[in-house]
UniProtKB/TrEMBL annotation, chain A:
Its cofactor is pyridoxal 5'-phosphate. It catalyses: dodecanoyl-CoA + L-serine + H(+) = 3-oxotetradecasphinganine + CO2 + CoA; tetradecanoyl-CoA + L-serine + H(+) = 3-oxohexadecasphinganine + CO2 + CoA; L-serine + hexadecanoyl-CoA + H(+) = 3-oxosphinganine + CO2 + CoA; octadecanoyl-CoA + L-serine + H(+) = 3-oxoeicosasphinganine + CO2 + CoA. GO terms for biological process: ceramide biosynthetic process; sphingosine biosynthetic process. GO terms for cellular component: endoplasmic reticulum; membrane. GO terms for molecular function: pyridoxal phosphate binding; serine C-palmitoyltransferase activity. Residues 119-482 form the Aminotransferase class I/classII large domain. The keyword Lipid metabolism applies. Gene3D superfamilies: Aspartate Aminotransferase, domain 1, Type I PLP-dependent aspartate aminotransferase-like (Major domain). Pathway: Lipid metabolism; sphingolipid metabolism; Sphingolipid metabolism. This is Serine palmitoyltransferase 1. Keywords: Acyltransferase, Lipid metabolism, Pyridoxal phosphate, Sphingolipid metabolism, Transferase. Pfam families: Aminotran_1_2 (PF00155). SUPFAM superfamilies: PLP-dependent transferases (SSF53383).
TrEMBL record, chain B:
It comes from Sander lucioperca (Pike-perch). Keywords: Acyltransferase, Endoplasmic reticulum, Lipid metabolism, Membrane, Pyridoxal phosphate, Sphingolipid metabolism, Transferase, Transmembrane, Transmembrane helix. It holds the Pfam family Aminotran_1_2. Its cofactor is pyridoxal 5'-phosphate. Its main location: endoplasmic reticulum. This is serine C-palmitoyltransferase. It is a single-pass membrane protein. The gene is sptlc3. GO terms for biological process: ceramide biosynthetic process; sphingosine biosynthetic process. GO terms for molecular function: pyridoxal phosphate binding; serine C-palmitoyltransferase activity. The keyword Mitochondrion does not apply. Residues 159-516 form the Aminotransferase class I/classII large domain. The chain crosses the membrane at residues 55-76. It is found in: Endoplasmic reticulum membrane. One of its GO terms (cellular component) is serine palmitoyltransferase complex.
Length: 494, 549
């Protein structure tokens, strides 16, 4: 097309110059035009005629769009739709997938547990204080059942708030010596809902690499910037905080509205380590970052009165912005709670998704939790007993051949890892599984592998066997378990 | 059932249609309705009609005006607080942390501080009894304009409960019914203390899963401890990067959260609009993933059985047809519909006569119809096996409480008639009867109510913020507990009250509620409807239901 236009230039000129000359001739314009028309050679006229038509065509034709040729016709769409083959909804799971066949527990999962028909001593359930089969707790639950039935049939906002819930919240706040507490109906949903209630897009969260899965889900739901620091490594955390401080100096306007949080666990479920809370607090005030503390493993375990890591370190609980824990471990009920100052906690009553949009905790489970708190308050000695048992198990398991014990000595849920990896995660898991199967249930000690979703974890913890200490375990029980484990380890690992 | 009522429906529809064309400005819903048209054959299987009548123009104007006024007052009061003329009751940041970045931005809480705070006595009302058809509310007063509440110690006895999702009346405390639950509590205690994969897989969990699969007529099922988490923790196991989720615009937060956590791309189609859904499906499949244009790995359509704020039923037959045509997968959340609809309480698949195996993922909760807690996912064995090994909930969350499990088992056995009685079926019929009666009477009175005639969720449109509050308080005065919802749970101009019917409501209770509704409706001018519903005999006829089932 361009070629044609350049070609035609001379003709254009002749046409226009003709016209201009004619215009200057004023009155004779028409006559001259007609004359010129007659004088012009025929081929010229034909050529110009063709050119005029060409220009008109160009003017009135639609503009040429490049992507129009890409637009699919209905037919092509049909073909594509016909052709498309989706992946299956779920990939096939092989029948012998290790996490497919669950062990079946018949009867209560308490101290004496029946796994696949064999009675065992329970070293696997997080029933630290043995409250699962406590008669008082059961009686309270039954009394509640008689009055309220089972379900609440509604979220907290819509007639799902029972007097029992209000009582439990105020009891928890009292127990932890904080202004306010809020309960959730599921342990996992507690911290996973609390984090996104405060931290939004654009905010920054500093989080320990060993943080548990529900924290990870909370972080993901918040859509904030996540910065992982090495597990319990305060220098690494400070490095990140300093980096951020520099960043903030560059853009102070943005920094004024960017909330910053540190999220840590009290006792880490994945490593059985304790967080260095006093150091964290120093960093908190130095860099003005708020601290969220997840205490599912340490609530009802650490501290003289079982208040958790804050009591363990003698830290003022008001220095922690938010504490969250579940009531499924030490408390042996279901659900979770957050506590702290009203300024912080109250916000979740409208913004905690798991709080607002889920049915509230069945009253009988709340009543059981209240009774568990009663027992914990009446007899703080149970925490001392638990700590002694932990220490006992911790020392007894030291020096198991081929296995190393991970965790601090007062942690009630320890990990046994392979001293030397056999090369791959799968074979490590297989070795540990053989050890567990050697002991449980045939030799009467219930143990379990710590389970993870390998593809989903941000930093996948090393494979391990979980060893859970409860106050119901006698010295003989512990002796039996330890010798079983040692026997199994030397048989399997050789 | 469909056959016996089809004629009546058609008439009713035409009737409405005629009126619609003349009298009513078409709103979105009506337009969609006509596009999808019940004439397409599949839709005529829809047992009852859904209506979404639009309010007169002045209502919308007044609503905006109302919001405008309260917002202005909000600014005024914020100003008064800022200059110290009004005391601020909000909890304050501690002194030590005043120089931190503020935890909340001022504008974020404007709505809470100035609008919600004035009226929050209508939510979170504490109760101190069973959430049955009648309940006892704890009396509370506020001495500081709702900033704090004080319980007086008194109770409002036997208020009629129109708010709880107690569809089949299984929120009950009859000792005979609860005997097995009490036994299990004595035997097991209330907790489990471990996850399903580790050591928390109890025999009764497996018994329940077997029962759920039987009830739903599918191959297999898995249960979880919290309904909300059933969605938010399992959707990420099913879809991920490179997958597309097509989600109804009114889906519940838990579905949205699950979709967001999955990492899949989410596109939202208009509520129950098959045209919008099909367009999206065609577009998505033919153009592939954005930017890379690779074909999608899989496409998952997420819908609910009954939408809890609209009372509308999913257009299941059409969706199943679309899903088959475009090879997408279907995720059906039956939180409100399982137990509550269908001749034997098996939810929307039964109501629409859709084969459950055509729905790839059947999800539901036990909180509502079963009077317990938790949720399930059911479907093909491969699906459930995959979830058993890959669900977040199976690996990281504590297993379901034994007494709660037993409650579900006993309720489900009762619905299925496995307890040797006809109690379950009686309740299902009673709920359907109550639903129709209540909806028909409200329509006659001239209220605008949304949703399907079969849905036990009955939203009554109140529109103006002032009326919402007045309505809730006035009903409480008359000892009726209602749920009101407004922005942000609904569109800003469509604040509403929501009634949930129950099989446990007696006719006398419903009549009492209706009587008060009539009075309050006149008193507060809530009867916005301009449609004239003659008392259509079809709506009262319980016989056709019996015949069909």
């Amino acid at each position: 097309m361009f070629m044609l236009l350049t070609h035609s230039q001379p003709c254009f000129f002749s046409f226009y110059t003709n016209n201009i000359n004619m215009a200057s001739g004023q009155q004779w314009v028409l006559v001259e035009m007609v004359q010129a028309f007659y004088e012009a050679p025929a081929y010229h006229l034909i050529l110009e005629g063709i050119l005029i038509l060409w220009i008109i065509r160009l003017l009135f034709s639609k503009t040429y769009k490049l992507h129009e040729t890409y637009r699919l016709t209905e037919k092509e769409k049909e073909d594509l739709i016909e052709e498309w083959q989706p992946e299956p909804l779920v990939p096939p799971v092989s029948k012998d997938h290790p996490s497919l066949s669950y062990d079946v527990v018949t009867g209560p999962p308490s101290h004496n547990i029946i796994i696949n028909g064999k009675e065992c001593i329970n070293f696997a359930s997080f029933n630290f204080l043995g409250l699962l089969d406590n008669e008082r707790v059961k009686q309270k639950a039954l009394a509640s059942l008689k009055k309220y039935g089972v379900g609440t049939c509604g979220p907290r906002g819509f007639y799902g708030t029972f007097d029992v819930h209000l009582e439990l919240e105020s009891r928890l706040a009292n127990f932890m010596k904080t202004e306010e507490a809020i309960i959730y109906s599921y342990g996992f949903a507690t911290i996973a809902s609390a984090i996104p209630a405060y931290s939004k897009r654009g905010d920054i969260i500093f989080v320990d690499e060993a943080a548990c899965f529900s924290i990870q889900k909370g972080l993901q739901a918040s859509r904030s910037f996540i910065k992982y620091f090495k597990h319990n490594d305060m220098e690494d955390l400070e490095r990140l905080l300093k980096e951020q401080e520099l960043e903030d100096h560059k853009n102070p306007r943005k920094a004024r509205v960017t909330r910053k949080f540190i999220v840590v666990e009290g006792l880490y479920i994945n490593t059985a380590d304790i967080c260095p809370l006093p150091e964290l607090l120093k960093l908190k005030y130095k860099y003005k970052v708020r601290i969220f503390l997840e205490e599912s493993m340490s609530f009802g375990v650490l501290g003289e009165h079982g208040r958790g890591v804050t009591e363990h370190f003698g830290v003022n609980i008001d220095d922690i912005d938010l504490i969250s824990a579940n009531m499924e471990n030490a408390v042996a009920s279901i659900g979770g709670f957050c506590c702290g100052r009203s300024f912080v906690i109250d916000h979740q009553r409208l913004s905690g998704q798991g709080y607002c949009f889920s049915a509230s905790l069945p009253p009988m489970l709340a009543a059981a939790a209240i009774e568990a708190l009663n027992i914990m308050e009446e007899d703080p000695d149970i925490f001392t007993v638990l700590r002694e048992k932990c220490k006992h198990v911790y020392t007894a398991l030291q020096g198991t051949p081929g296995l190393k014990l991970v965790g601090v000595q007062f942690a009630p849920a320890l990990h046994l890892q392979l001293e030397r990896s056999s090369g791959s995660r799968d074979s490590d898991m297989q070795l540990l599984r053989t050890i567990v199967e050697y002991v449980s249930p045939t030799r009467g000690v219930a143990l379990t592998l710590a389970r993870y979703l390998e593809k989903e974890e941000r930093f996948l913890p090393s494979p391990s066997i979980r060893v859970v200490v409860t106050i119901e375990q006698t010295d003989q029980d512990i002796q039996k378990a330890v010798s079983c484990i040692q026997e199994a380890a030397s048989a399997v690992l050789k | 059932m469909a056959r016996t009522t089809a004629n009546g429906n058609l008439k009713l529809y035409l009737n409405q249609n005629g009126l619609k064309c003349e009298d009513i400005k078409r709103n979105g819903y009506h337009n969609r309705r006509q596009k999808n048209g019940p004439g397409t054959g599949v839709a005529s299987r829809q047992p009852r009609q859904e209506s979404f009548e639009q309010a007169p123009m002045y209502v919308a104007v007044m609503t905006y005006l109302g919001f405008g006024i309260v917002t202005l007052f909000g600014y005024l009061r914020d100003f008064l607080r800022a200059v110290g003329l009004e005391k601020c009751h909000l909890a304050q940041e501690r002194e030590e942390q005043k120089d931190f970045v503020p935890l909340y931005q001022d504008f974020e809480n404007f709505y809470t501080r100035n609008l919600y705070m004035r009226v929050r006595d209508n939510w979170n009302r504490p109760i101190c009894s069973l959430p049955g058809p009648v309940f006892d509310l704890m009396e509370r007063v506020s001495d500081d304009y709702n900033w704090t509440f004080r319980l007086t110690g008194g109770t409002i006895h036997n208020a009629i409960n129109m708010g709880s999702y107690n569809y089949l009346g299984f929120a009950e405390n009859n000792a005979d019914f609860l005997k097995t639950v009490a036994d299990k509590t004595r035997q097991y205690g209330v907790g489990v203390g471990s996850t399903r994969q580790e050591i928390g897989n109890l025999g009764i969990h497996e018994e329940l899963e077997q029962l759920v699969a039987n009830f739903l007529r599918v191959e297999s099922s898995m249960t979880f401890g919290m309904g909300f988490a059933t969605n938010s923790m399992n959707i990420p196991a099913l879809v991920g990067k490179g997958c597309l989720i097509l989600s109804d615009e009114l889906n519940h937060t838990s579905l949205i959260l699950g979709a967001r956590l999955s990492g899949a791309l989410i596109r939202v189609f208009k509520h129950n609009n098959m045209h919008s859904l099909e367009k999206m499906l065609r577009e998505a499949i033919s153009s592939g993933q954005p930017r890379t244009h690779r074909p999608w790995k899989k496409i998952l359509i997420m819908v609910e059985g009954i939408y809890s704020m609209e009372g509308s039923l999913v257009r299941l037959p059409e969706i199943v047809a679309l899903k088959k045509k475009y090879k997408a997968y279907l995720y059906l959340d039956e939180a409100h519909s399982i137990g509550a609809v269908g001749p034997t309480g098996r939810g929307v698949t039964e109501l629409f006569n859709v084969n459950p195996s055509d729905v790839d993922v059947m999800m539901g909760t036990f909180t509502k119809s079963f009077g317990a807690a938790g949720g399930y996912i059911a479907g093909k064995k491969e699906l459930v096996d995959y979830l058993r090994s890959h669900s977040h909930s199976a690996v990281y969350a504590t297993a379901m409480s034994p007494p709660v499990t037993e409650q579900i088992i006993r309720a489900m056995k009762c619905i299925m008639g496995k307890d040797g009685s006809t109690e379950g079926i009686r309740r299902i019929h009673k709920l359907a009867e109550n639903t129709r009666y209540f909806r028909a009477r409200l329509k006659e009175m001239g209220f605008i109510i949304y949703g399907n005639d079969d849905s036990p969720v009955v939203p009554i449109l109140l529109y103006m913020p002032g009326k919402v509050v007045a309505f809730a308080r006035e009903m409480l005065e008359r000892k009726i507990g209602v749920v009101v919802v407004g922005f942000p749970a609904t569109p800003i101009t469509e604040a509403r009250a929501r009634f949930c019917l129950s099989a446990a409501h007696t006719k006398a209770m419903l009549n009492q509620v209706l009587h008060h509704m009539n009075e309050v409706g006149d008193h507060l001018c809530l009867k916005f409807s301009r449609l004239k519903y003659s008392s259509c005999p079809n709506l009262h006829d319980e016989k056709d239901f019996e015949l069909g089932s």
